[in-house]
TrEMBL record, chains A, B:
One of its GO terms (molecular function) is oxidoreductase activity. This is Transmembrane ascorbate-dependent reductase CYB561. Its main location: membrane. The chain crosses the membrane at residues 16-38, 58-76, 88-107, 127-149, 161-180, 200-220. Keywords: Cytoplasmic vesicle, Electron transport, Heme, Iron, Membrane, Metal-binding, Translocase, Transmembrane, Transmembrane helix, Transport. One of its GO terms (cellular component) is lysosomal membrane. It is a multi-pass membrane protein. Gene3D superfamilies: 1.20.120.1770. It is found in: Cytoplasmic vesicle, Secretory vesicle, Chromaffin granule membrane. Residues 20-221 form the Cytochrome b561 domain. It comes from Orycteropus afer afer. PROSITE patterns: CYTOCHROME_B561.
Amino acid sequence: MESGACVAATPRALPYYVAFSQLLGLTVVAVTGAWLGLYRGGIAWESALKFNVHPLCMVIGLIFLQGDALLVYRVFRNEPKRTTKVLHGLLHVFAFIIALVGLVAVFDYHRTKGYADLYSLHSWCGILVFILYVAQWLVGFSFFLFPGASFSLRSRYRPQHVFFGAFIFLFSVGTALLGLKEALLFQLGTKYSTFVPEGVLANMLGLLLACFGLVVLYILTQAEWKRPPQAEEQALSMDFKTLTEADSPSSQ
Amino acid sequence: MESGACVAATPRALPYYVAFSQLLGLTVVAVTGAWLGLYRGGIAWESALKFNVHPLCMVIGLIFLQGDALLVYRVFRNEPKRTTKVLHGLLHVFAFIIALVGLVAVFDYHRTKGYADLYSLHSWCGILVFILYVAQWLVGFSFFLFPGASFSLRSRYRPQHVFFGAFIFLFSVGTALLGLKEALLFQLGTKYSTFVPEGVLANMLGLLLACFGLVVLYILTQAEWKRPPQAEEQALSMDFKTLTEADSPSSQ
């Protein structure tokens, strides 16, 4: 079989939307860095600046990398399905590790300062996002990468995986907005209402975060931008389908 | 034609999910009322309690009613399409009017207290949601209820309308979470970290809001729960299709 034979054309507008999402994602990371650098004294592990590791890691891991992991199937349209799956899973692992560093940073910071843990809505949402993220990864791995699950089981679980993946991503964006708001109100207090530069910059960061969520969700939900099944997968899925149907007592 | 002939069966699980969404939505409204009643002195138009009109109206209008307006096409599956459309549009009008009262309440409150307007991330997101909501309603009305738009134009715009409708709803939920967080930090300050009852109740309200968003989004995105096209619509759409294709210079 010629490998060139199953190369499907990329939808015309898709690359522009993907490029725009990456520009937005990198801008979000850069503005987070700028905010922490300009108004919060920068980043360090061994001082009170440890707190600042938290927002930066969360934005890189649970916003930018998580968003990009969701886009993998839209971007890599002609690579073998297994390669794309592994890349999707690996990007989520990187996102998880970076987010874990961000989580350790904030708990460490609270402990050294003697602050209470997990009292705020941001922290409740954050812990929930983290648990859901790990659960989704484990279930996804056991269905799609571990060789045990049957084709029909995968087909039935796939839409749920996609739906909850998108929801966890959006919930991460919402949690980031709550955290940003918390950081602003703790630090600025009533100065926030005088349109100080930090407040305006952070508000713009919040809108950029929401825009990144919007663009990633838009790319994901366009039906005609979904990854086309490849010749090899179609053949494979037919084999699996025949096998599964032959297994089932209700067939024929 | 027998009207009974085009009644499609309702998917088995759908009514349970819809019932659960309504239970959640009403719980969200009740908990918002309980929070304002127990910890914020209740609601009144002619006093400092005017502020409390804002969260209650926003939760009833832009969360509960907006969510229900999105579900109309899943719930009313066998009524004529036009009736369902009018109900969808009307629910959005009610949601808009209630939200407008909530918006006036907070601007009035700010004016009497001499507070600045529109400085916070919550207010930026809120104004954006409000503008997007009105724009989406006007564009939706001119495409789907105003008789001018052709069938092919409607078909092309429909997925965009659904996507942006869902996004505006989720953005409303996110904005409500930001507002809740703001109200807690302004009022409770450092007491928030001592797990005072108001903080715990409001955090639970935040999670309930996110759950309502999740359940509405889940019902909306299940492909097999979409409203089936009815015999009359299919006949009509065929007519329109023939007309549109006959109009087009490229046909035949």
